[in-house]
Amino acid sequence: MVSLDNFFKSAFTVDNVIFGFDEGDLKVLLIKRGEQPFLGKWALPGYFVYPNEDLDGAAVRVLEELTGLKNVYLEQVETFGDVNRHPFGRVITVAYYSLINTKDYILKLKAGSIAQQAEWVALKDVNDIAFDHAAILASCFQRLQRRVRHRPLGFELLPKKFTLTQLQQLYEAILQTELDKRNFRKKILSMNLLIDLKEMQEGVAHRPAKLYQFDRAKYEQFLAEGYIFDLSESKKKNGKKVNGVLH
Amino acid sequence: MVSLDNFFKSAFTVDNVIFGFDEGDLKVLLIKRGEQPFLGKWALPGYFVYPNEDLDGAAVRVLEELTGLKNVYLEQVETFGDVNRHPFGRVITVAYYSLINTKDYILKLKAGSIAQQAEWVALKDVNDIAFDHAAILASCFQRLQRRVRHRPLGFELLPKKFTLTQLQQLYEAILQTELDKRNFRKKILSMNLLIDLKEMQEGVAHRPAKLYQFDRAKYEQFLAEGYIFDLSESKKKNGKKVNGVLH
DNA sequence: CTTAATTAGTGTAAAAAGTACGCTAATTCA
DNA sequence: TGAATTAGCGTACTTTTTACACTAATTAAG
Question: Fewer CB within 10 Å: C terminus or N terminus of chain B?
Answer without folding.
Answer: N
